[in-house]
Known about the structure:
The complex is a heterodimer of chains A (119) and B (107).
Chain A: E1 3-7, E2 11-12, E3 18-25, E4 35-41, E5 48-53, E6 59-61, E7 69-74, E8 79-84, E9 93-101, E10 105-109, E11 113-117
Parallel strand pairs in A: 2-11
Antiparallel strand pairs in A: 1-3, 3-8, 4-5, 4-9, 5-6, 7-8, 9-10, 9-11
Chain B: E1 4-7, E2 10-13, E3 19-25, E4 33-38, E5 45-49, E6 53-54, E7 62-67, E8 70-75, E9 85-90, E10 102-106
Parallel strand pairs in B: 2-10
Antiparallel strand pairs in B: 1-3, 3-8, 4-5, 4-9, 5-6, 7-8, 9-10
Amino acid sequence: QVQLQESGPGVVKPSQTLSLTCTVSGDSVRTGSYFWSWIRQPAGKGLEWIGRMFSSGRTDYSPSLKSRVSISIDTPNNQFSLKLSSVTAADTAVYYCARGSTWFGEDFWGQGALVIVSS
Amino acid sequence: DIQMTQSPSSLSASLGDRVTITCRASQNIDAYVNWYQQRPGKAPNLLIYATSSLQSGVPSRFSGSGSGTDFTLSISSLQPEDFATYYCQQTYTPPFAFGPGTRVDVK
């Protein structure tokens, strides 16, 4: 069974960089069959797709976040990571990592990590 | 970017009711629509992928249909565990936008 688990600081100061890691088990981030995504959800609001990365290194990001976001893959540790720079209170949300495919959707998700932007 | 809309934004229903949720894309997305269920405090759970394919382990009372720009999710007979929020998502071209969600609660 594929499992994903987010980890990282729960509180980030304004203007700093949010960093989260997703550890994958039951599959390899090196697979060419899937991509690895980040999605976020502010409290009481809907889902916002942040971006994805393939093991090849190809990335796609939401245009609204593209100037501040970076996703990378750490194949030796079977992890992938999210960095979001220059955060503000509007970046406070639950951040999810997921495994995805254009045809099969985002089929496995982590439990989510709450990140609060506050001084 | 492709925008996704859903209707209604919320609905109230009773156990055993048939429920239908509509999703519309701002342009043709072929069959690249997925549906997710999210219960409070939990991660979204994939129900339907590629418009009408049932994800493994999902009860058969869930079904999806549509093509092009208009899609629907149906629940044939609402069960207690189905009271939740439902999201559609397009995976035709990035960014893979989600719809704003439809909350299903108890009448």
